[in-house]
Amino acid sequence: MAGTYSNLNFHVVFSTKNRDSIITSKLEAELNRYIGGIIQGEGALLLKIGGTENHVHLVIKLKPRHSIPDILKRIKANSSKWINDHQKIDVPFSWQSGYGIFSVSESQLPHVLEYVANQKKHHHNKTFKEEFVQLLEKHEIEYENEYVW
């Protein structure tokens, strides 16, 4: 086969350090655009971004050449540097170390896109912790509760 063909969709979740509720609605809009620019600069595609005051969900399409840890490191490092350098909030900003990443089949992509788009509504009934543990269990990822939080 002469070419490389792929369809690598991922649902990524990460939170602010200590899950502090510091992403204001004003910051969120700018941050979403900035993260989108980072992803585009990496040659990847942001399909959807959503979140709340303490965490972010991304649906991204990667190429086989992308290293997931490297691209997420750049997203988190560059976005937190941007927030701090431009004094977007009154306290130092950083992301929690680690993240959740879940593969998304093309058949499930519309459902995941809708889920990410409706994060604020979704979190009227569920905490971030409940949501994240549910994602881990749904994707059959083993975890130890003491290390998730």
Mean pLDDT: 94
Could you name the CATH class? Answer: Alpha Beta
Largest sheet: 4 strands, antiparallel
Work out the number of β strands.
4
Describe the structure.
This protein has 149 residues and is an alpha+beta fold. The chain has a single domain (8-148), classed as Alpha-Beta Plaits (2-Layer Sandwich), CATH 3.30.70. Helices cover 42% and strands 19% of the residues. The chain has helices at 25-41, 68-85, 109-117, 119-122, 128-138, 145-148, and strands at 8-15, 45-51, 55-62, 100-104. Strands 2-3-1-4 form a four-stranded antiparallel beta sheet, with helices on both faces. A hairpin with a 3-residue loop joins strand 2 and strand 3 (55-62). The mean pLDDT is 94.
Q: How are the SSEs placed, and which strands pair?
A:
Layout: E1 8-15, H1 25-41, E2 45-51, E3 55-62, H2 68-85, E4 100-104, H3 109-117, H4 119-122, H5 128-138, H6 145-148
Antiparallel strand pairs: 1-3, 1-4, 2-3
Helix pairs in contact: 1-2
Please summarize what this structure is:
Helix content is 42%, strand content 19%. It has helices at 25-41, 68-85, 109-117, 119-122, 128-138, 145-148, and strands at residues 8-15, 45-51, 55-62, 100-104.
